[in-house]
Amino acid sequence: MEIDAHSLHAGASIEIPKIDRNELGRALHESKRARLQQCRQTVDFSHLAQPAGPPDLPPMNRRFHPVTLLEATEGSPTLASLAARARDASERLRAVEDLIPPEMRSALKAGPAEGNVWCVLVTGSAAAAKLRQLAPSLQSRLKARGWDVETIRIKVQSRR
To answer: Strand pairing partners for 109?
Structure first.
């Protein structure tokens, strides 16, 4: 049924055909599926399958190529810097270890060194008090071994 402007006037009735909702839903679904299929045919996604970056780099998938922790730290400048700082802190603690009473050594951990300040992490306030007494001899030992340490900061950690 066609409707033209001449047949529309005040009081005119128009018959609207009934539409089955299921049929309308199927038609919309088919239309979307056809448009999606057409898009898939016209868009080329093959460039996404290529590895990103220069072709001479190894692929980033390390699933079948395990890497040791040492190789990972050497391969990343950030991790290499962090590993060097941790090594330095551990070497400082080893340099002064014989000045610390053997019973107290398990309560100490090497902390970060920033400039001329070295932090020692201590479990318990009694060990921290004893370490404060030993701080001048620890500083002189570290200076004798080549580290410029003006201050030893003692940080008490709670036991967990």
So the answer is: 121
**Residues found in the chain:** 160
For 24, the 3-state DSSP assignment is: helix
Residue of 117, 120, 116 whose CA lies nearest to 105: 120
CA distance 60 to 65: 10
Handedness of CA 25, 30, 35, 40 (dihedral sign): positive
State pLDDT tens for residues 105-154. 999 999 999 989 999 999 999 999 999 999 999 999 999 999 999 999 99
Contacts within 8 Å (CB) and 24+ apart, 25-34: none
Q: What percent of the chain has pLDDT over 90?
A: 44
